[in-house]
Amino acid sequence: MMNAAFPQVRIVPRRMLKPDTAERLLNMLAGVAGIRRLMIHGPGLPKKVPYGPARGNPNPHSDRKAIHVGDAEIALRISAGEVILEVEDASVIEEIRSLCDGFFTEFPYQLQEGRFMKTAPTLVDYAKYGPDADTSLIGLADPRNGEGPVIVRTER
User: Fold this and answer.
1) Which keywords accompany this UniProt record (predicted)?
2) Is residue 148 a part of any domain in this protein?
3) Is the pLDDT of residue 88 over 80?
4) CA–CA distance, 151 with 42 (Å, rounded to integer)
5) pLDDT tens column, 31-84
6) Cα–Cα distance between 46 and 98 in angstroms, integer?
7) Phi, psi (5° rounding) for residue 99?
8) What domain count does the chain have?
9) Given this model, what pLDDT does residue 91 score?
10) Residue-wise pLDDT tens digits, 99-149
């Protein structure tokens, strides 16, 4: 079981982020020491139209593309609506706030503190990763996706 004492914050921009903007924000955050886990959250961008008269047809969307964060390539399957972070201690939150104040100059954002990620294994985590799962992956499993989360390693 994970230690639930780690603070969590959520960066909520006023509007959805384009892939290029999300890439710049994530690379900026990847350089911050003290971030344990990071999750991008937002509405999905399906490859095929899921319902309606065009159901099953390809769904070309300009925001579904690969971005590069740190040493990893991430295929965006969502519109980035918010970024959820788990940090080592509260001092990291102020560093994140100052970086976001400099980053979000054209439109506003909110930085919320609270509990946004699961800290104990769920049934989905057990089914996807088994009983000896890496605790850094707890709460990051998407039951509808066959792929696992992307791990970004940064030099610190």
Assistant:
1) Methanogenesis
2) no
3) yes
4) 19
5) 999 998 888 989 988 889 999 999 999 999 989 999 999 888 888 888 999 999
6) 34
7) -65, -40
8) 1
9) 92
10) 999 999 999 999 999 998 887 777 877 777 778 877 777 777 666 666 666
**101 within some domain:** yes
Please state whether the predicted TM-score (pTM) of the whole model is above 0.90.
no
Range(s) of the domain holding residue 94: 8-137
Amino acid identity for residue 127 in this structure = A
Q: Which residues contact 119 (CB under 8 A, 6 or more apart)?
A: 1, 2, 3, 4, 6, 138, 139
For 4, 11, 92, the CA distances from 86, given in Å and listed in that order, are 10, 11, 10
Q: What single-letter amino acid sits at 39?
A: M
CB 83 within 8 A of CB 13: no
Q: Name the β-bridge partners of 113.
A: 9
Closest to 115 in 3D by CA, of 9, 1, 3: 9
Whether 149 maps to a domain, the answer reads: no
Asked whether residue 56 is assigned to any structural domain, the reply reads yes
